[in-house]
Amino acid sequence: MRIVYLVDRFPSLSETFIAHEVIDMIDAGVDVRVFSLGRPKDSFALPERVKALDVVTYFPFPSPSRHQKVRDMAMAALRMVRRGQLTNLRRCLFDKENGGFSRHEMLLLADALSDPHWWPQIIHCHFGTVGRLAAMMKHKGLTQAKITTTLHGYDISKYMRQNPDGIYDLLIRETEHIFTVCEVFLSQIRTLGASKEKTSVLHMGVDYDGLIACATPMRRNASIHWVSVGRMTEKKGHEYAIRGFARALLDNPKLRMTFSIVGDGPLLPKMQALVEELGMKQHITLLGAVQHDEVQALLTQADGFILHSVAAEDGDMEGIPVALMEAMALGLPVVTTRHSGIPELVEHEVTGFLVEERDEAALAKILGDIGTQCPDMSKLVEAARMTIKRDFNRKTQAQRLYGFFKTILGARPGAGRTAQSGRGG
Predict the structure, then answer these.
(1) Distance between CA atoms of residues 424 and 144, nearest Å
(2) Which domains are assigned to the chain?
């Protein structure tokens, strides 16, 4: 089985789930390649398993210079001419229908997908923005591979608001299957016209066994330490988490609590100013970007986890944050919001605590009650762990995805031979 993972940037510190899924497919015996449409913007290291196999191809999008762009296109065109793929070359350069994608993108990707030494049976896309590109490639006859796409959040919320109606029509028509990370997004893509047969929920998962091995017993210290993990963007709701935490301390003067927030992003300076304005510098620490393994180490030293996700003004929304799953697997009580797919993960007072979006008072009350009453949360923590083990376990979710890939290839005997013979153009 040969699969291309088509992604925007790889690896990304805020999208570690993609790197983990690639590793899981490699472990399952899949011949994987990763096509990244640009270089990573952050410092998240390429996983050693992926690095050792040398399976990542980086595309120069956007091109560093016009000269380099012309040179790249010329070399790709020459390779396609030598392969006799003149029809595909014409489609890349002269077809007017391109869905907003450039000839540069089309040509370089078509060249990579038509390498006679390795061509994919499936192109699996993370995020609908990239899925649209794969769907256009399929529509123009530039690949015979099956297209599958996972929708995560931004792509089915903010991106849709910023683009015209029908932006996903081609994706819905050309893709073999669309996965969503939660029921909320599943309903939304079906409302746009995707059929039940071509859509389903596939939750992201975490390394449950590995996290359980790292978990530490619940502590009952005089001081409670809360942690939050998420990029400094509006939808992560850091402002409300900070204000709610500060209010809990003001409402309960004898309460001893600290709060560490992991994450970098455009709102970091604003959050730093807010912490100072509220007089919380002794209680709240903003750590900026932290590598994934270091985040887990921080979580094992915490007493609880806060993530106050909200719908941003521009429409951007979460799916089901992986950080919440990790915290629950590690045995931390979580306090979060009734936002998007989060209630599919957290049941109020059963596997965690839920408040309404932007409700600082409700957040403060829960934090205050936990800090002053010291309730026994062993049953809640255990129920949360079982939820992760059952429904958000990376191992079982990878098995589901692998099984689906086998099914769609098995549904068409000789899929590989057909794809190969159809690539000449």
Answers:
(1) 11
(2) 2-205+393-421 (3.40.50.2000), 208-389 (3.40.50.2000)
